[in-house]
Amino acid sequence: MKEKRITKTNHTPRSSRLLLLLGFMLAMSCTGNEIYNKHVTINNDGWNSYDSKTFTIEIGQDGIYDINTFVRHDNQYQYSNLWLFVDHTRPDSTTTNDTINIKLADHYGNWIGGGWGSTHQIQHPIAIKQELDSGTHTISITQAMRENQLQGIKNIGLNIQYHKQ
């Protein structure tokens, strides 16, 4: 009786290739007008008032863009809004500063935005129809709630997309 020889190949199993292809297609379908989307996690001890969250963005071409921030918080957050300082440094080193107020709850105390369980997320515009030059942009976001350790904020993020005409 002859033994069957088993040889190893470097081929990926068919199911793994299919899963990889589906993942790639999903990633490509989500891009749309979006050129940047990133979030950072806030320390469980709270968001320090001096702790700026900095995002470095490479803009490939001059154009008109929408810049949004998103906030993920839980039910431990004690306020109905969130004040943020936003500093935007452009490729030519000019900096603009802004203060934005994000409404997180209605006047009845119900959280606004999407959520699951005790976690809620809301997106808020920083700048709509903003003309941006190509190059490196740096956007820093700092909580402006006058608390040294702001509790209940879990993530802060930044999203930049081409402005839809």
Explain the layout of strands and helices.
Layout: H1 14-29, E1 34-41, E2 47-48, E3 53-59, E4 63-74, E5 81-89, E6 95-103, E7 114-116, E8 119-132, E9 135-143, E10 149-150, E11 153-162
Antiparallel strand pairs: 1-11, 2-10, 3-9, 4-8, 4-11, 5-6, 5-9, 7-8
> How many E-type strands?
11
CATH fold name, please? Jelly Rolls
Unreliable segments of 5+ consecutive residues: 1-31
The geometry reads as: globular
String of helices and strands: HEEEEEEEEEEE
Instruction: Kindly provide the radius of gyration, computed on alpha-carbon positions and rounded to a whole number of angstroms.
Output: 22 Å
Strand numbers in spatial order across the main sheet:
1-11-4-8-7
Helix content: under 10%
Query: Helix count, per DSSP?
Result: 1
* Protein structure class: mainly beta
Query: How many individual domains?
Result: 1
Q: What is the beta-strand fraction?
A: over 45%
Average pLDDT rating: 85
Keywords:
5-stranded antiparallel sheet; 52% strand; disordered N terminus; 4-stranded antiparallel sheet
Task: Explain what the structure shows.
By secondary structure, the protein is mainly beta. The protein has a single domain (34-162), classed as Jelly Rolls. Helix content is 10%, strand content 52%. The chain contains one helix and eleven strands. The protein has one helix spanning 14-29; strands at 34-41, 47-48, 53-59, 63-74, 81-89, 95-103, 114-116, 119-132, 135-143, 149-150, 153-162. The chain has a five-stranded antiparallel beta sheet, with no helix packed on it. Strands 3-9-5-6 form a four-stranded antiparallel beta sheet, with no helix packed on it. The termini are far apart. The model is unreliable at 1-31 (pLDDT under 50).
